[in-house]
Amino acid sequence: MFATSGRQQLRGMSPRPYLVITLAALCACGSQKQSGTNPLDGGGKPPPDGGTIEPGLAFQPAFHQALRWSEPLAGPTTVRMRIPLGRAGERVRVTFKAGEGGMELSRATIARAGAEGSLASDPMELRFDGRAGFSASPRAQVTSDAVELPVAFREEIAVTFVASGSVAASAVELFPDSYWGSGDQADAPGAFGEPQLRAMGVSNVYVEAPPTRAFVVMGDSITEGYVEGQDEYLEAWPAVAEAALRLPVGNSGVSGQGVDGELDNLESEIFSVEGITDCIVLLGTNDLGGTPAGRIEQTLDLLYDRLRPFCRVYAGTLPPKEMDDLDDDRAHVNAWIRSHRRVDGVIDFEAVLAEPGNVNRFREGMAMDHVHPSVKGHA
Fold this sequence. Notes:
By secondary structure, this protein is α+β, with helices and mostly antiparallel strands. It is built from nine helices and 18 strands. Helix 1 (18-29) crosses helix 3 (237-245) and helix 6 packs parallel to helix 7 (327-338).
């Protein structure tokens, strides 16, 4: 929804979950004029007419997950991650990310995902500049060569790799039917080892197709998808929006982070992602209570400024945080966000989730606790 002058305003509508507000804001923005670079030139904003993308083919993210944490591996370990794709196309590339201690990847495969950790097709070897594996320094990312694998929107693939050292990982368990086990078990047709439900080692999956708009969302545990701790990636609000938009929406939510954390990691988690055209920022909840409202606003402004040359920027208001001593600061930050003139749109999450007549409390059924939306709140 738009809170700035000259933009469509949706506040005052009947209650809707995150998705409808997101759709209304993002789709309405598609017709606005916007300067910037062609996604075919390596990412960034759409061309100057604001909606038309030049014909051709481009690799854009069908999956993106911020991997801020690090998981040490006790010797060679096989990881299999089941990943839903937000983009259809004919060729695929996979980006792997090392943890804090660096990573040695000896081999990796990709296949169509079956049930309960099984493979629904013969695995295809991934290569890296023609080689079977690679050595990556701490926090480095390495992208595979392209493989011919026609995939459909929301098809699920299984990426399996054998590595030692440490791999980058997410915090929340969101990826059912994913496994890990000791040794090289990459060719196992079924499940092996034990479940490992966090995103691990795989930061991006790119699919080649005609270029479209491609979104990435920056946030905290609300965006990452935390509800109870063992959750479902496809039920997090960015994935719900992706399903309805039928456009890729990458999840760069990192549990526990504030605005400074995002600023510190823009290069590795946002600017390194190819083909992004639109950025959504839902940050500041974790800063409340420890940082004055004015300082949160200054830091958000800096974040918007840094993003602007790279993508369209949408600012999200902060949802309720049911702690009385934080109400005034949250209201101050949200008023500032709604009046911001230098973003491309404002998505009013508070208006969707807050109880009628009391913006400091969640609507009934919309919250899991005093901070995190429920599955209904995401949907």
